[in-house]
Amino acid sequence: MFPLAMADVGETYIIKKIGGSPEVKKHLENLGFVAGGDVTVISALGNNVIVKVKESRVAISEEMARKIMV
After folding, report:
1. How many other CB atoms sit within 10 Å of the CB of residue 15?
2. Considering just the CA atoms, what is the radius of gyration of the chain in Å?
3. What pLDDT score was predicted for residue 46?
4. pLDDT one-digit tens code per residue, 13-59
5. Distance between CA 20 and CA 44 in Å, rounded?
6. In this structure, are residues 14 and 36 in contact, taking their beta carbons and an 8 Å threshold?
């Protein structure tokens, strides 16, 4: 298990755990990041990570990506 920020581009992973404060967890959940769900890294540019989750593309900061364990 490792943070989404360290994931390889183009690979699909299963979300194992969401970390952070309750507010951060709720925010990520609202974006579609839930344990057991699939996430694909589209690209990583600078301090942002673009991922595909639930048929949507979402850009999150590297800091947020570190809270999502795959």
Report:
1. 19
2. 10
3. 85
4. 999 999 999 999 999 999 999 999 999 999 988 899 999 999 899 99
5. 21
6. yes
